[in-house]
Prior knowledge:
Elements: H1 2-7, H2 23-37, E1 42-46, H3 54-63, E2 70-76, H4 82-87, E3 95-102, E4 104-107, E5 110-113, H5 116-129, E6 133-136
Amino acid sequence: MNTLISKAPPSSITPLFVDYTNENKLRTEIQRTIRQNGPLQLVVAWIHSTGKYALDIIAEETSKTGSQNWRLFHVVGSSTNLEAAINSVKIPTGCLYRQIQLGFVIANGTSRWLTHKEISNGVIAAIRHDKPLYIVGTVEPWERRP
């Protein structure tokens, strides 16, 4: 998060550090942020399976402002079924849904997980490229996964 914030123009990123498994707190924090800063144009959300409704809450609250063509970058892991991930989210009208799949690195005959810096730079690259799917690292061959 700090890398992303440091590379962005001043006041263009408002990080929400909130326990997304606390649905009421998540909803309240999004509403507060929108009141303070106006409609959200871009959301990067890395939600684990413990936040069952978090992505839906984010999409719902962001869309209530009437924002058109706002972008939701959903960060997912290497083993995520991408089609199932899309189908699990209620993508509202006006939302441009994007996926960032985090993979792994194969170097010198061994594989390893991505570093924090590689993840941060990958998220930044995904935002710049603005494609429906952006893979950071590699997800194939599956048997080489660390």
